[in-house]
Each structure stands twice: as C-alpha cells, then as structure tokens.
Amino acid sequence: MTELAPGFLWGASTAPHQIEGNNLNSDFWASEGRMPGMERSGDACDSYHRYREDMKLLADAGLDAYRFGIEWARIEPVPGMISRAELAHYRRMIDTAVELGLTPVVTLHHFTSPLWFAQEGGWLGDRAVERFRAYAEAVAPILGGVEWVVTMNEPNMLAIMIGMAEAMRNQQAAGEWQSPTLDHEGPRPPLPAPDVKTGERLVEAHHAVREVLRGRTGAKIGWTVANRAFVARPGAEEKKRELEYVWEDLYLEGSRGDDFVGVQSYSSQWVGPDGIEPHPQHPDNTLVGTAYRPDALGIAVRHTAEVTGGMPILVTENGIATHDDTRRIAYTDEALKHLRTAIADGADVRGYLHWSLLDNYEWGHWEPTFGLIEVDRETFERRPKPSLAWLGETARRVRD
Ligand code: IFM
Q1: Is position 169 within any domain?
Q2: Average pLDDT over residues 358-379
Q3: CATH number of the domain to which 372 belongs
Q4: Which of 184, 297, 317 to mutate to test the pocket of ligand 1 (most atoms within 8 A of CB)?
Q5: 3-state class of 288 per DSSP?
Q6: How far apart are CA 303 and CA 224, in angstroms?
Q7: How far is the CA of 66 from the centre of ligand 1 (A)?
Q8: How remote is the CA of residue 69 from the centroid of ligand 1, in Å?
Q9: For ligand 1, is residue 227 a contact (CB within 6 Å)?
C-alpha cells in the first residue's frame, strides 16, 4: 500500500458561523429569516463556549487535526475597532487544540463577513481588499505556531453567495431560500454560476492576505476550493473545460504560489453538451440533494493536482449529509480508497479533514446533518456517532 506523507493529518473541520452561535455582527446573521424557508442559526451548537469539549471528543477518538475558523465580525465588529478579547478567545482555541494534541488548521474567512463590510459594498466594494488585509494584520499576531492557515473558504461558493445577496437586496429573489450548498433541483432554479469578476476580486484579496501572513507568520498559506468533480459526457469535453474554469479553475489557478490548496469534495456531476446535468433523482441522494458519489474525492484531488501543477493538497472538507451514520461510514471508507488511489498515482496529499465534526447550521437549514457528532440543540449535549470512533480507528490503523 502507498505510504502517506509523514505527518499526514487526520481530523475534522468546522466553520465559526455554523457552530459558534450568536454571530450577531455578521452579514449572514442579518440576512437570516429574511426569506421564507430560511432558518436562523441562533445559538447554533454553542461551540463559542464549548470548543474544548468539541476538540476533546475529536482528540479522544484518535484524530490529530482540527480545522476551525476565526470570525471576522467578532474580531472587528466596527471598522477599525479590533476586539482584543476576541483575539484572546481565538488564541485560547489555538492553545487548546495544541494542548490536546490537535494540529490547528485555521480559516480566516468562511463565507461570513462583518455586516458593516457588506454595507460598505462587500467584496465588490472599493475598499474590500484593504479591509480584508487590515483584518489579517490584526489576526496575524495570534497565529504564532500555527502551521496551516486558510485565507478564505470556498471563494467559488462565496462568489455565488455574493450574487444571491445582491439578488435579495434587489428583491429579485423569488420563492424560498435555498442555501447555495444545497443542490435540490426540481421546482427551484439551479444554482447560478460564480461570477468571474467577483472571483477575480477574491483572488486579489487572497493574494493580498497571503502577503501579509507570509511577512508576519511562519504558517503555510492557502485557500480551499469547492470542487464539483465534473465528468464529461462523450463529446462534451470542451464544455466541461469551459465550466470548470468558471466554477473552480479560476480559483485553483489563483492558488499558484501558495503553500498548499484545500480540496473540498462531496459529489460529482455530469457535464453534457448543454451544460451541467442536474443530479439524477435517486433514493440514494444525500440530504442536500446531491448524488451519492464517494468517488468524487479522487476526481477532485486529481483535477486539483493537474490544474495547480502538483501543489501540496489538504483535503479540508469531505463528507455526506445523511441521518444514517452507517452510510456516512460507508461513504467515507470508499472516499478514502479513492483518495489512496489518487495518492498512489502521484497526488501530494498532506491530510484528510472530514466535514464536519458536528451536526451544524447548514446556511439557512438545520435538516442536513454532516456531523460525526450529534448535538442536542436545546441542551447542547454532544453525542458522538459511531463514525467518529470509526474515523479515529482508521487514522490509528494507518499511522501505526
Ligand atoms: O457546510 C458547508 C461548508 O460551510 C462549506 N462547504 C460545504 C459544506 C456542506 O455543504
């Protein structure tokens, strides 16, 4: 069997807005409940206070890495006003991870921004890059000893969210709220493609922050890209390349010069001569409407390695929305086999972080559960699922 890279990370990922609760100064919080069908995040999993318990469950299961985020809206609730207390909070999180034997992988931006930033024009505003840069400068001092920093999560999905927010503002949005991370077809319109101009702005912001962090930390810097693992129908290869550029290659190319790139993979989609084909209706489809495709991870990793010219890869998200934990184990087991084959074929993969540690707030919806741990939303009691122990055991077996 192919050896994994020395120090290969095994762990799970989360995002602040989805688990912390009461992210009051953020743009997403302000948008919650504005459309029918959109649930509020509320207290979420109260991980803002319970992060030690979460990390301990992960470490006790035998895993050694935790990806979590810093929430810009908490650090800078008002432009230029940096909260020292919040910086200290996130430093405590980093210290706790290290104390428990977990390598922290820290994300600076995971979809949400301060409300004031959105009101100022958001990512397309004149001051966007300067603002993100200033936030990174404020955070850099607490990143001492952190080896992996993600500047931005899924800029390609963020570009779609920016378009959706714009439509909401212009009252063009019709019908029920659908998170861009849900892929239900049927009566709802398919997701719009990410806008290229927005994507180019995000690449610029990523490069600016990479420069800040390179000058002030010793961390490896990268960003993470949502990969749709497109597969072409015969004769649709050109169409696939065209769509790939807009959906992901713009962002993968934007990672050139980084220290690593994050691969985020859940399902795969066919591309025909007319474009992306909807996920076929099937009883095996996941709770977010996507096809059950554990092979997507291998496709995503190979494509990323090809476009980035063999850059080191961290799998920063991979998982399945299901209420059936045996399916989560089966999906992950198979996904890991495809990952091993991609590694055997030459992909330089440095770690696997499962999405997600907890059942959490799926951007307007609580129904799709991705977690290795169930969370009682009233008492906040954590109930580890068998998949958590299984993943820990898998990591141990490979390590020893
Ligand atoms: O929950 C999201 C996450 O925030 C970004 N990547 C996809 C996940 C599952 O939809």
Answers
A1: yes
A2: 98
A3: 3.20.20.80
A4: 317
A5: coil
A6: 14
A7: 16
A8: 13
A9: no
Q: Domain range for residue 259?
A: 9-399
Within-domain flag for 170: yes
Confidence of residue 265 (pLDDT cuts 50, 70, 90): very high
Q: Is residue 1 part of a domain?
A: no
Q: How far is the CA of 246 from the centre of ligand 1 (A)?
A: 19
Among 66-80, 156-170, 381-395, the least confident range: 156-170
Please report which confidence band the pLDDT of residue 1 belongs to, taking 50, 70 and 90 as the band edges.
Answer: low
Between the CA of 365 and the centroid of ligand 1 the distance, in Å, is 12
Match 């490896």 to its residue by tokens: 220
Q: Is the pLDDT of residue 187 over 90?
A: no
Indicate whether residue 181 lines ligand 1 (CB < 6 A).
Answer: yes
Q: Return mean pLDDT, the chain.
A: 95
Ligand 1: centre distance to CA 362 (Å): 7
* HEC sequence for 132-169: HHHHHHHHHHHHCCCCEEEEEECHHHHHHHHHHHHHHH
The count of structural domains within the chain is 1
Q: How far is the CA of 169 from the centre of ligand 1 (A)?
A: 23
> Is the CB of residue 15 below 6 angstroms from any atom belonging to ligand 1?
yes
> Is pLDDT at 167 greater than 90 in this prediction?
no
Length of the chain: 400
Closest atom of ligand 1 to CA, residue 226: 6
Predicted local confidence at residue 186, as pLDDT: 55
pLDDT of residue 308: 98
pLDDT of amino acid 181: 83
The answer to whether position 4 is within a domain reads no
Q: β-strands 269-272, 275-276: how paired?
A: antiparallel
Query: Going by CA atoms, what residue is nearest to atom 10 of ligand 1?
Result: 181
Whether pTM exceeds 0.85: yes
C-alpha–C-alpha distance, residues 265 and 245, integer Å: 17
pLDDT of residue 172: 59
- 359 CB near ligand 1 (under 6 Å): no
Taking each helix axis from N to C end, the angle separating 296-308 and 325-344, rounded to the nearest 10 degrees, works out to 40
Instruction: Name the residue of 158, 182, 355 to mutate for ligand 1: max ligand atoms within 8 A of Cβ.
Output: 355
